């Protein structure tokens, strides 16, 4: 793995999120209205590392509640949840706790990349976003959405926006009064106005999405 030189990056904290919210409210009255009516969004943070990245893979194209149930069963079975311990599980064990064949393949690939030294998540978190994205996307089953969520909730990068996230698309459509749900390309274009605080805007939109869940059991990246 070839890594670029470490870059200085202001990672998100409660204080920097507060600054970002002020900027966003000034440039987009719709986002400002969310803050006025719902208050500041949660931090939504997870610890960086193998368990979190594996959990995000589980969350691909399924409900977060369903993925969390599988992840909790895994954590009860594998203590501690390390790449080495994960690789001791066979297909039958993983299927029993809810892993699909595809997710088994992806998560094994991640664990093997770490144990072989191909991927060093601790070193990677010190790198710039482009390097992180390039290195993670070399692994089968990890695409832009997975990297975006990892950058946003685990590494706390301030200007990441998961354009492929369904919750963000639904929230943006409702907030902006759009007749159709924006495509990822359209959502990315809308989010351009929110630079360099797009990760804060994403939190605001998730906050808004949850408030409009109409009593449904909906969660985001806790």
TrEMBL record:
It comes from the Bacteria. SMART domains: ENDO3c. The keyword DNA repair applies. InterPro entries: Alkylbase_DNA_Glycosylase/TA (IPR051912), DNA_glycosylase (IPR011257), HhH-GPD_domain (IPR003265). GO terms for biological process: base-excision repair, AP site formation; DNA alkylation repair. Its EC number is 3.2.2.21. It is an enzyme of class 3 (hydrolase). GO terms for cellular component: cytoplasm; protein-DNA complex. Residues 58-210 form the HhH-GPD domain. GO terms for molecular function: alkylated DNA binding; DNA-3-methyladenine glycosylase activity; DNA-7-methylguanine glycosylase activity. Keywords: DNA damage, DNA repair. It holds the Pfam family HhH-GPD. The keyword DNA damage applies. It catalyses: Hydrolysis of alkylated DNA, releasing 3-methyladenine, 3-methylguanine, 7-methylguanine and 7-methyladenine. Belongs to the alkylbase DNA glycosidase AlkA family. This is DNA-3-methyladenine glycosylase II. The lineage of its organism: Bacteria, Bacillati, Cyanobacteriota, Cyanophyceae, Nostocales.
């Amino acid at each position: 793995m070839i890594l670029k030189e470490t870059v200085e990056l202001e990672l998100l904290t409660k204080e920097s999120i507060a600054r970002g919210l002020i900027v966003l409210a000034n440039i987009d009255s719709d986002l400002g209205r969310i803050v006025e009516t719902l208050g500041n969004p949660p931090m939504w943070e997870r610890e960086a590392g193998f368990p979190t990245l594996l959990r995000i893979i589980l969350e691909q194209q399924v409900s977060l509640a369903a993925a969390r149930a599988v992840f909790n069963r895994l954590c009860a079975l594998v203590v501690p949840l390390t790449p080495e311990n994960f690789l001791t599980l066979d297909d039958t064990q993983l299927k029993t706790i809810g892993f699909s064949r595809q997710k088994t393949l992806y998560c094994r690939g991640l664990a093997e990349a770490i144990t072989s030294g191909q991927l060093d998540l601790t070193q990677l978190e010190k790198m710039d976003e482009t390097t992180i994205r390039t290195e993670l996307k070399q692994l089968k089953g990890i695409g832009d959405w997975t990297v975006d969520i990892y950058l946003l909730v685990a590494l706390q990068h301030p200007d990441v926006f998961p354009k492929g996230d369904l919750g963000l698309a639904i929230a943006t459509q409702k907030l902006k009064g759009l007749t159709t749900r924006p495509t990822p390309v359209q959502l990315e274009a809308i989010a351009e106005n929110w630079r360099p605080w797009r990760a804060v805007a994403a939190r605001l939109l998730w906050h808004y999405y949850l408030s409009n869940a109409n009593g449904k059991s909906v969660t985001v990246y806790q």
